[in-house]
């Protein structure tokens, strides 16, 4: 069958394809624009197998997730113990596989964990406790009467918290070491997080996100190994948290490139690849939501979620479409959970480990993005590493420049539905660039910048 099929169709190269495309597009082939991903990366609008190095493509594919599927992990915000417990149970009974429990600024001592976790067995259900509190204090409370094996983890990035607030991270590094020692056999319990939201929500390009995140994990591994934690434990027991934006193909490539870069980092520490199990918790972006057309966020979030699962996330968090401007209700939370459920059960994406493999454009995009990010990472290392780059303002300046470019693109020809095209409010004003220079890089409250919800970075030495 296969021999006859190929004998009926002669091979065709890129020239033949372009000739046919030129004919069908009636002379408009050259109007197809290049893929432009930030200021860092430009790709041709179409590619063939002749433009992909097969060995590099195989290396990229070898680093991807081997098991299909992902956890459906909605966010539940802590309010008071019993009410939050009801909310978590409701989500788990209606599509959720795990919970990202946002403790906010709640004091650990006042969370009343026996009430908060009533009827939820942490040995069966993964709960990720998102907090800026001391990791050891949180673990002490959640491990009481919880059995010998816990799933989930503590979604805390003390260095990102320092970058946001100036709060010193050294004590929490010691707390992470303590919890790692107590949970040596709990392979499904993540003790700390590398928070990519910090860079994404301050305007980073995909290349910058990747470079800064791998610089972040190198910093953590070095800090933890200095305290006699093995590099394999430090590498495997973290949760990498990333956001996916609306650039569909670029975000798929970003996640695939991230796994490739993590493999290079693990090789540098001489870790056996077969034992390295990076865990990617990916959430739909808060940065690009449109307040002026909130229902559009449902569609945008669905597209972003599809990028996340095709890129190989282990856990998917779909943010409710209304979360930027009000407390989500039962309807918006249910829709968010159902996005993940539909992708898993109706699209069949949960049956394939790496659905993007073999696409020439995605493979090339993943490889080029990884190369550019590696260059930036090495540049950061040459400048003294992650902490030093923040203290000197290198990271802040890079993010500010990227954010300025995003705003410029939106103000010119880049289309974002509900933000600068097909908008609902006819009286909305256009982007005012003076807002770019606010202390927090916050571009909210202007039509072309409604999607930008940047967070403040503060340079403060540990």
From TrEMBL:
Domain of life per record: Bacteria
InterPro entries noted in UniProt: Cbl-dep_enz_cat, MeMalonylCoA_mutase_a/b_cat
Location of the Methylmalonyl-CoA mutase alpha/beta chain catalytic domain: 149-428
GO molecular function, one term: cobalamin binding
PANTHER family, sorted: METHYLMALONYL-COA MUTASE, LARGE SUBUNIT, METHYLMALONYL-COA MUTASE, MITOCHONDRIAL-RELATED
UniProt name for this protein: Methylmalonyl-CoA mutase
């Amino acid at each position: 069958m296969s021999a006859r099929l190929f004998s009926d169709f002669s091979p065709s190269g890129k020239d033949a394809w372009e000739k046919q495309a030129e004919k069908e597009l009636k002379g408009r082939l050259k109007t197809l624009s290049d893929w432009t991903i930030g200021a860092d990366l430009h790709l041709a609008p179409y590619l063939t197998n002749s433009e992909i190095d097969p060995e590099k493509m195989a290396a990229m594919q070898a680093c991807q997730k081997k098991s299909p599927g992902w956890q459906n992990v909605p966010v539940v915000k802590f309010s008071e113990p019993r009410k939050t417990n009801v909310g978590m149970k409701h989500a788990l009974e209606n599509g959720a596989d795990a919970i990202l429990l946002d403790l906010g600024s709640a004091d650990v001592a006042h969370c009343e964990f026996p009430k908060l976790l009533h009827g939820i067995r942490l040995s069966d259900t993964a709960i990720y406790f998102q907090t800026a509190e001391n990791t050891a204090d949180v673990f002490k409370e959640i491990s009481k009467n919880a059995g010998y094996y816990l799933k989930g983890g503590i979604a805390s990035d003390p260095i990102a918290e320092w970058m946001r607030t100036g709060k010193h991270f050294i004590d929490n590094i010691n707390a992470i070491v303590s919890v790692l020692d107590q949970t040596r056999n709990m392979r499904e319990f993540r003790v700390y997080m590398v928070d990519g939201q910090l860079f994404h929500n301050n305007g980073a390009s995909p290349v910058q996100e990747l470079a800064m995140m791998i610089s972040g994990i190198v910093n953590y591994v070095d800090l933890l190994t200095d305290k006699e934690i093995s590099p394999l434990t430090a590498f495997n027991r973290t949760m990498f948290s990333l956001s996916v934006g609306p650039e569909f193909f670029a975000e798929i490539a970003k996640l695939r490139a991230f796994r490739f870069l993590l493999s290079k980092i693990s090789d540098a520490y001489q870790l056996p690849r077969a034992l390295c199990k990076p865990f990617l918790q990916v959430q739909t972006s808060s940065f690009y939501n449109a307040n002026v057309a909130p229902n559009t966020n449902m569609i945008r979030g669905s597209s972003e979620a599809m990028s996340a699962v095709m890129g190989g996330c282990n856990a998917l968090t779909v943010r409710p479409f209304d979360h930027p401007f009000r407390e989500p209700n039962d309807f918006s939370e249910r829709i968010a959970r159902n996005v993940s459920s539909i992708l898993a059960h109706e699209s069949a994406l949960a049956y394939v480990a790496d659905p993007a493999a073999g696409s020439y454009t995605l493979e090339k995009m993943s490889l080029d993005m990884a190369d550019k990010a590696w260059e930036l990472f090495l540049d950061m290392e040459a400048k003294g590493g992650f902490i030093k780059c923040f203290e000197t303002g290198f990271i802040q300046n890079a993010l500010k420049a990227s954010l300025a470019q995003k705003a410029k693109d939106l103000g010119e020809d880049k289309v974002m539905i509900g933000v600068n095209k097909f908008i609902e409010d006819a009286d909305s004003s256009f982007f005012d660039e003076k807002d770019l220079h606010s202390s927090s890089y916050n571009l909210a409250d202007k039509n072309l910048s409604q999607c930008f919800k940047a967070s403040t970075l503060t340079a403060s030495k540990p």
